[in-house]
Structure formats: C-alpha cells, structure tokens
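Collaborator request log, item 7. Partner lab (contact: R.S.) asked for a structural prediction of Alpha/beta hydrolase family protein to inform their binding assays.
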Amino acid sequence: MSSHMRHLRAVPGLLAMAGLLLLHGCAVTPSEQATKLSAQEALTRAQWWQEHAPHQQNDDARADAWMTCAMLAHDAMVSPQAEVDLAAAALATRCSRAYLETLVQGTTLNVHPGRMDLNGRRVDVQFRGLPDSLGNRLHLELANQLSMEALNGVRFQQPGFGVPVVAGAPPCMDRPICALYPPEGVFRPATVWLEEKPGKQGTGKAPVLVVQSPDSQPLHAVGAANYRLAEDLSAPYEQLLERSKLRRLGWWGLIGGQAVGRRSGLFLIDDYDPGKIPVIMIHGLGSSPIIWAPMTNAILGDPELHRRYQIWHMVYQTNAPLLIERRRAQAYLDATWKIVDPGGHAPARQGVVLIGHSMGGVISRLLCAQSTPALWSAAFTVPYDSLHGDKSDLAVLKGIFQFSPYPGVDELIFIASPQHGSPVAGDLLGRLAQDLALRNIPEMSDVERISSENPGAVQASLLSGEYRLGHLSSVASLMPDEPVSEVDETLMPAAGVRYDSIAGSLPGRQPPSDGWVPLSSALLPGSASTLVVNARHHEVPRDPKTIAHVLAILRQHDTSH
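Returned to partner:
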C-alpha cells in the first residue's frame, strides 16, 4: 500500500491482530491525554474505551467515552505500520459513529462552526469544504438511519473513513442562486469524525467534531497518509424526496394549479459547478420530477458520472399547448444561466444533455429545432410583421412560433415521447383532462387578443371546432391531427445534436404501445440508439434497462467532450 494514500477497507485479520495487543485496564483520562502516546499505545487505550463505553452509567458518560475512544484512535492513525493505522482508522470511525448515535438517538444534531456544548463537553465544531448552499447552521442526520423508502431501498455508498451523514439546511434567501434550490431545503453529503487538538497547558487536548464535504475534499490527511472519506451518495437525495410536495402537485399542474406555477423553473440537485455538464430532466404531462428519482439516484451513485455531470430538474405546469411549453422551458433555461453564469463563458454551457419523458421529450426536441414558415402558416394567414396589437402580446406570439435551437445542447434522450402525437389524447379520459387543462394559460389570452385585433389573420381551423384557440391545451396539442402539431412534428433537432429514443411496448397491444404512446410515435427515425422496454408509459423512465441505457449514453457522450 502506498505511503501517500491508504484506502480504508474492512480488514478482519488486521483488526484481530490489533485486538491481541489489547491491555485491559489501561484507561486514559483527559489529563493523561496531554501525555504523548505512541500510535500503538493510543490504539490500545482506544480499544479499552471501546469495550467499556457501552457500560457507562448515562448517555453523557457514554458519549464522553465514545469521544475519548474516537480521539485516541485518530491519534493512532499516524502509525507507520499499515496494520496499526488501518485498525486505528476503522476504530476511529466506529467510535465516532457510536458517539453520534448516542447524541442523536433517532433525531438530528444541530451544529454550527465554533465551540459548542455537546454531551456536557466543550467541542470545537469545524466545517471543512462544505458548499456555500448549506450556510453556517446545519442539521445532521446519520445516513445509515434513513429508510431509503423514496428510492425503493436503493442506496449507493462509497466506503472509507468517517461517518456518512446528510447535512441539511433551509434554502437561502439572500442571493440570486437561492431561487434554484428546492424550497424543501438543501441536502448535501458530509462525513463526520472526531479528532483532537492541543489544549491549554495542563488541560489535555480539546475535542474537535469535523464535518467535511466528501465531494470537495474527498481525502483526510493524517501524518503522511491520506484516507478516502466514506460517503453515502443517495441519502441526501432521499431526504429531499421525503420532504417534497411535488408528488401530489403533478396533476394539479396539468389542470393549471397555481402551486406548480409558483414552483416552475429549474432546480439544482447539486451545487452549481461551472465545469460539470448539466443533465436537464424534463417530466411529462401531469407529472413531476419525482418520476426521475431512480435515474437521478443512479447518476448520483456512479462516482465517475457524478464527477462529470450535474443534474437539474425542470418543474412546470403541463396544461399549455406544446409550443407554449417550449417557450416556457426556454425562459427557465435563460433565467438559470443568467444566475449561474451571467458572463456566458462557463464550460458547463457546452455539451448539455436534455432527458425528456413523454411530453417532456417533445419539448426537448422543439427546444433544439428551428421553426419554419410552415409552422407560422399553420396558425396564421398573414406575416407576423403585418399584425398589430399590444407589444407584449406580439412578443409572446413571436416567441411561441419563431425560435431557434437552444445553444449548447448536443444530446437529447427521448423516453416514451409522443413525437407524432397520441390517440389516447382524444379518448374520453383525454378529453376530460383537456377540459381541465384549459385553466390558467395566460399566453393563450395574449394570442386570443391578437386574433381579435386582427380579423382574418388566424387560420379558420383554429377559430372553430375542437382545435379553436380558446380550446387549445397541452392535451389537445398531443392529438395526432391537431393542425399546428402536425407541422411541429416535422421539426427535427438541429444538425450536430444527437438524439436517442427509448420506448415502452406492452405484450399483446395492437398496435404496439406503452398504453399511452404508440411505439411508432415514440421511435424517432435517425436516433443514434433505440431501446424498447416492456413497461407501461409512466414506468419507462424507472425501468432498470432504461436507466442502464441512459447511463451508457452519458458515458459515451462524455468521452467526446
């Protein structure tokens, strides 16, 4: 093993060897800690405290005993003997965990940098490398005590030194980037352990509780050795999901619910990194970012991909026609880049990946397409320049029908996306959803005012019947024969933008479909890769084969940047 880096692993033989050196009865008091101990002596005394800590008379005494064990074991990690320092690192981790468990006991531990009173002792709390998004007052939860129910029990972990925790804080309110943090709070991985620093003469050594980011500072140096930190890669995201209200707001977004409208925009799962490629996930009709939970967890849990990518989730009302939803998505992207990269020079602006499920995939395609005169002509009989009306109404109209490929995006992943519409949108349930979806679409009011002020300027097919302007919604625009959608279906991603198609197909369905989207509509010609899974429409993004395929695409995509 290199003297410059020692990865902490479970080494039963080495720990057993260390146990043979145990000298019972060699307890150490705080005043004795001032005496310089050899690494072996420190380890032996730490082992004594480990044995006796559970038998202390109360919680404060037990916590104090675990603290002494952890600090002595940490001191022993400077040993030049591999079997000693590995045993010491493992013991320092165990005793630090027992200390935290004694303090927390199923709740949370509130900490801030500086001196604090914990278990009747003055403890110096140190934050090392934690992101600005967390601020200076945190609540810590032991990662291994979380149920992972929201992620179906799937947990990704990195073994190493220290105790993985979730560091949580309310979202900030004093900077523009605060708008990009989920309102439920900020949750980040952290690793905790106890060490000590010299105290005043005659008072022994002072305990230090370290809370360190395993992302920005993945190593802990002790003497000449570096120890990779343990990390729970899933627990912070689990905590966000457990607190999220989006699960029950998805359908409200379809019918114009204002709660989703207030939440609309892009939200960062990690802190913004100008060097990481954004993977932007766009949910579908009546859905929410909760549908991306398994896929997000898989990307966060892959250390290689997590180092290269940052995940952004889009939240939006899903009641408006496709072209309006495309315009809204562009506005969310513009607002986010204005906050995180106002100068427009970050490497993160290049190589962006959009992943869209259902209608989110159609929006993704339209974001990377160039509008055409045929699209305008499908709705209007006269050129844009000949229209008159309020300037803001005209600007909205232009933004809906005249657009260019969004810069920086070069990979699209379509998942169960009705690129050529869905016949289900016209059935009884679809029509009911359409009627509900007509609420709160302010852009349609702008278009209707322009229509009223310019008689004869709107195509007759949009003035009467089921596709009339006042009756258009997201559901209506997914009907295969809706006039404007018939044209926007022909708008393909710009040259140089790669796209991949993933679809669902249920056994026995004729024609083949996932229960909502026909296979012929979900498989787009020209796709760089195609995958068909046996899954219902809303389960396609969660299917293990889908997730594995997306991860493979991301690995391949990154090698070309």
